[in-house]
Amino acid sequence: MAEHQKEESVVESVMDKISEKLHSQDSSSSSSDSDNDEKSKSPSSPSSFKSKVYRIFGREKPVHKVLGGGKPADVFLWRNKKISAGVLGGATAVWVLFELIEYHLLTLICHGLILALAILFLWSNASTFINKTPPRIPEVHIPEESVLQVAAALRVEINQAFSVLRDIASGRDLKKFLTVIAGLWVLSIVGSWCNFLTLFYIVFVLLHTVPVLYEKYDDKVDAFAEKAMIEIKKQYAVLDSKVLSKIPRGPLKDKKKA
Q1: Where is the region Disordered (predicted)?
Q2: In terms of CB atoms within 10 Å, which end of the chain has fewer, N or C?
Q3: What tens digit of pLDDT does each residue of 160-191 get?
């Protein structure tokens, strides 16, 4: 009996040791999981670091969403290389026709209509002699909803531009005033170098090159832009302390409507 009791006590002690080891492993795994959760929630994690990375113009969305998404953004970002190359090639052909060959817009439209009407007229009359079906000319109608949507979008943008110009002219924001004046001055210089068509073509080419390059090298560009903005803010602070702050300004009183 004594030997049997000793064997039972040995078995119980072994079982106790095994259960203690299992509990210790469970507690260590739970503590490691909690540590991992805390690390993932800590501000030094990569996800939180990415959210704090400087982006140009405070961009928080992808470049595709910034460009409006849809087919225009796909064309600008070369999602379909054939379509993007075709659009850019067509714009280049138009620029060559009007700028280099000095073809006029009205002449091009009239010649294109003459050619199209002549081909369709001859095809329609010749189909009766050669026993073939005449060309099916579709009926073209401009939908009213699309025109109203475009007009409404233009109206919103124009009203917003007028409100910005009004705020600038009222003298409330000196920084915005100087920025707009500098931008218009640069635009006037560029306009003196080339005509409107060439300027439009340059902007069109930039829209097909700059966004796709920025999407590819956005980290490097954002880092460089951050350094440039810091330097610009420093220079503006020096200009403000030495020049702008010494400009006398009258008190601005907002008129309250009764």
Answers
A1: 20-49
A2: C
A3: 888 888 888 887 777 788 888 888 898 888 88
Say whether 46 sits in a helix, a strand or coil: helix
Under 8 Å CB-to-CB from 104, ≥6 apart: which residues? Answer: 98
> Which tokens is 97 given?
């026709």
Q: What are phi and psi of 5, to 5 degrees?
A: -65, -40
CA dihedral 99, 102, 107, 111 (to 10 degrees): -90
Which amino acid does the sequence have at 77?
L
CB 124 within 8 A of CB 135: yes
pTM of the predicted model, to two decimals? 0.53
Structure tokens at 85: 């190359």
Region of poorest pLDDT, from 25-39, 196-210, 211-225: 25-39
Question: Can you read off the two tokens belonging to residue 233?
Answer: 């803010």
Angstrom distance (rounded) from CA 10 to CA 14 = 6
The answer to whether residue 2 scores a pLDDT higher than 50 is no
Q: How distant is the alpha carbon of residue 215 from its chain centre? A: 9
DSSP line for 52-98 = TS--GGG--S-HHHHTTSHHHHHHHTTSSHHHHHHHHHHHHHHHIII
Give the whole-angstrom CA distance, residue 126 versus residue 96: 36
- The answer to whether the beta carbons of residues 191 and 199 sit under 8 Å apart is yes
Write out the two tokens for 176: 């915005």
**Neighbour count for residue 201 (Cβ, 10 Å):** 19
